[in-house]
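Posting for a labmate who doesn't have an account.
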Amino acid sequence: MGCQEEPLVQQVRELFEQISSLKSLKPSKDVNMLFTQLVLTCMPPNPIDVTKLCKRVQEMRSKLIRLCGEAEGLLESHFSTILGSYENPLDHLHIFPYYSNYLKLSLLEFTILTQQYCTQYHVPNKVAFVGSGPLPLTSIVLASNHLTTTTFHNYDIDPLANSMAVRLVSSDPDLSKRMFFHTNDIMNVTTALKDYEVVFLAALVGMDKEEKVRVIDHLAKYMAPGALLMLRSAHGARAFLYPVVDPCDLRGFEVLSVFHPTDEVINSVVIARKYPMPTHSLEQQSLGPMILPNCKCSEIQAFNPFNHGNMIEDFSIEERQLS
């Protein structure tokens, strides 16, 4: 596929050039307008395969993802500061402009997790969220609405981000006892990873393929056997906004499901189980053969959080891989 004859690529490049020329990526009228245009350009389902674009576009995409990551971090810091000024910050989360997206994404992730792990009598006791940032909305929403007895250990490399996050939950009598924040590079966390039944990996931990794979390999080495890894990816044109994780990147894991929302929830969700699966977890449900090329994935073509029927289409991992 050539670079010039793809209208979507031209639109993305024009927006990239405008974003690159900004003096600052802190929230402002111009910043908000350009990133909104970028998201709306990349949101509609599109069969484009970013891995097959020319080198020049690949380089532009890598730079754009980093710009998106920087802008997202500044946006979260901005609103975390505002929220932290309230007596009860969690009562005002709706002021964050993408709060409804986090509600939908968290419900999607909980629904996927329920299919593979949770039952009425079995929910994870301890989970980790890697890359929680200054506004840890996924952890907050999951802990408040879905995993109401689970302890959340949030990891971020930035001490300021963690101090801002702590301020948000410190006044809540429940979450302040169940949410912990660790300032650490996850690559330096080893034995503690064995304590978690589920590990969430934020989309912007590992901003390119090599970084992402290094983090995944580290988790594969130190997570408990049978523990679940839930991570965020991107599909189609949305891969201009976030890094893509392919099933073949998950060495040491059995990929269970891949979900590609087609609504305003931008991130795809991948769930995988670390090899080898302990015998006792087989009683939860049969998950098929343990050889990666033969296991099954599930793809949600359009996720409706209020309709859990008729939304899964099975396909094999080898059909999805782009080689």
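Reply:
Got it, the structure tokens are right above this. The first strand starts at residue 126 and ends at 130.
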